[in-house]
Design a protein that fits this description.
Helix content is 82%, strand content 0%. By secondary structure, it is an all-alpha fold. The chain has two domains: 54 residues; 35 residues. The model has no long low-confidence stretch (mean pLDDT 87).
């Protein structure tokens, strides 16, 4: 085998090794992204069910509605309707 053939063979082996490592890295990345996506989907489902720790309580929502009423954005009737709905959640 000539020097050129040996060099070509060595570089081909290096490229195969690098391709294998890149393939392994891509599979790991895909797995990590899938796990993160599943976590985010579950988090969104919890928020949709009201399980989020960041969701306001009905009392906090009533306070916010009262402020909107006081500022003239909601009528008294609208405030009372929404307040009743929120009180039913308690």
């Amino acid at each position: 085998m000539t020097h050129l053939e040996e060099e070509f063979s060595r570089r081909m082996e290096e490229m195969k090794k690098a391709a294998g490592e890149a393939s392994r890295d891509m599979r790991k990345l895909a797995t990590d992204l899938q796990e993160q996506a599943q976590y985010l989907v579950e988090d969104l489902r919890k928020r949709g069910r009201g399980d989020s720790p960041f969701q306001e309580s009905p009392i906090e929502k009533i306070k916010a509605l009262a402020q909107l009423r006081d500022e003239g954005i909601l009528t008294e009737e609208e405030f009372q309707t929404q307040k009743q709905k929120l009180l039913e959640e308690i």
